Amino acid sequence: MVLSQNYLGGTGMRENKALSAWRNDEQTIGCWLSLANAYSAEVISKLGFDWVCIDMQHGLIDYTDVRDMLPAISNSDATPIVRVPWNEPYEIMKVLDAGAYGVIVPMVNNREEAELAVRACRYPPLGNRSFGPIRAALYAGRGYAVEANDQIACIAMIETAEGIANADEIMSTPGLNGVYIGPADLALSMGLPAMGDQPQPEHLEMVKSLLAKCKAHGIAAGIHTGGIEYTQKYLELGFNFVTLGSESGHMTKNAAKELAAARGIAETKREGTGY
Description:
By secondary structure, the chain is of the alpha/beta class. 44% of the residues lie in helices and 15% in strands. The longest helix is centred in the C-terminal third of the chain and has 17 residues. The protein is globular, with a radius of gyration of 18 Å.
């Protein structure tokens, strides 16, 4: 692909502020985007979250939606991240070309799969990402081709029995920036019910174990939550990036609360998601 010389060299690529924070072992709070809507993406990203993640795996979102949502997020300081549907290099490369500054890759089970994800995020010689940042270079500015390998975050999800068993080899993969825990799938892999925010002691111990491994390997540790209670709990434990629910969850909770108040009835407690 031929791009203007402005994007091919030099310095000044927009900083990935979330990744910089994680490299300094700092903590960040993000929000999940499950709805295919550029306006709601823009509204959420302007609230002050450190990052927002467009969910292509379980959200009602496809690539054309991502294409429209990423520019909307660009109007804020939030780092744009995309959870791809699966560990497919072409899908990873395509959302990066559209301007994602990080990808979360689900169901990573071993070192080989982690390496596959990393290679898709990195230009040669560190990977095999094809060069064609059609919108990414516009968002990032000068120096994208030179600095993208260092600024793009590659995050693997560990949430299966195989992934748990291979956690150390996954986390030691060169170029992997972090691990994100999906509490619901993690619970299923442990023979527990797939609840959103998991109260079981054995689940918490597994979460703590994965967190400790991330710290030992010097990579960022992230986890999904459905609301403030578990967000605060996981931040207190030392996680680097925690999801404070989703836009659909916040909409539902607030609407239910206001409706209950208007009718003068008790609000029904709603379970947060854990995916």
